[in-house]
Amino acid sequence: MNWKTIFNPFERFDDKALLGIGILTTALAILMGYWTGTYFSSIYKINSLDKVTFQAVAVPTLVSFVSAIAILFILGKILNSKTRLIDIVNTVLISQLLLVILQASDKISFIKEAQERVISHQNHPSETIPLWDLTVMIGMASFTLIILIYSITIYYNGFKTATNIKKWQHIVLFAAVSLIMTLVCQILTSKYF
Asked: Total structural domains in the chain?
C-alpha cells in the first residue's frame, strides 16, 4: 500500500468491497449518532440532538447522504455520461468514514472536561491558564482538521476518479456544487428533522 492508495482507494480496491465499507460506514454513523446524540445534517456537518431517538438520528443522516449522492450523480452524468452510480455512492460514503470518529469525540470525558475548564477560564481570566487543557483542545482541533482534510481529499479524489474530470472549470464546478449542496442540506435537515 502506498500514499496514492491511502488518498485514492477508488483506483485500487474493488467497487463492491468499497460499497460494503460504505454501507458499514452509514450504519456506524447512525449507531454512533444514537450513542452520542448526534446526526449528520449534511456531509461534513454533525449536529447535536435534544431528544435522541433512532429515527431522529437515522432519517436526517440518510437524507443527507442520499441527497449528496443524488446531486453528485447528476453532476457526474453532466460532466461524463459514463459516470456510474456505484462510484458516486462509494465516493460519498467512504469520505464520511473517519467523520464517524469525530462523532465519538464528545463522549471522551477528558476532552469534554478540558473544554469545560478552558471555557471556565475565559469567565475567570485572573486564574492561571490551564496549559494541559489548552494542549488537549489544540490537539483535538488539529486532529479534527486533519480528519476533515483527509475526508475532503477522499471525496474529491473519488469524484475525480468516478467522472474522470481534468479541466479546472469542472473542478471549480464540483467544489461550488458541493458547497451549495452542503449548505442547502444543512438548512433543510435542521428545519424538518
From this structure: 1
What cell numbers appear for 72 in the block? 453528485
Non-local (6+) Cβ contacts of 27 within 8 A are: none
- Predicted TM-score (pTM) of the model is 0.89
Q: What is the pLDDT of residues 36-78, one digit of tens each?
A: 999 999 999 999 998 999 999 999 999 999 999 999 999 999 9
Distances (CA, A) of 183 to 62, 161, 186: 16, 24, 5
> Could you tell me the residue range of the domain that residue 69 belongs to?
3-192
What does the pLDDT read at residue 1?
64
11-20 long-range contacts (CB < 8 A, ≥24 apart) are 11/161, 15/84, 15/86, 15/87, 15/90, 16/86, 18/90, 18/94, 19/86, 19/89, 19/90, 19/93
Question: So what's the pLDDT on residue 76?
Answer: 96
